[in-house]
Amino acid sequence: MQENLIPANINIADRIYRVQMLPEDEQVVRQSVRIINDKLLSSKLRYPAKTCRIIYLWY
Predict the structure, then answer these.
(1) How far apart are CA 21 and CA 23, in angstroms?
(2) Three-state SS letters, the chain
(3) Predicted confidence (pLDDT) per residue in 6-59, tens digit
């Protein structure tokens, strides 16, 4: 099973995470990352005076 995993660099909240996933899960993972980053960006725009760490704690 280990040999079927593919490596990927995932960027969440301006941090890079190195993960391994099955090839058939790659699209779902990338869509999830996009949704997470979109929500964080909308929160940053909605609450510009808040620090990023406070916004991240809300999620």
Answers:
(1) 6
(2) CHHHCEEEEEEECCEEEEEEECHHHHHHHHHHHHHHHHHHHHHHHHCCCCCHHHHHHHC
(3) 999 999 888 899 999 999 999 999 999 999 989 888 877 877 766 666 666 655
Phi, psi of 18 (to 5 degrees): -95, 115
The answer to whether residues 33 and 21 touch, using CB atoms and an 8 Å cutoff, is no
Q: Where are the domains of the chain?
A: 2-58
- pTM: predicted TM-score of the whole model, two decimal places: 0.73
Q: What fold is seen in the domain 2-58? A: Double Stranded RNA Binding Domain (3.30.160)
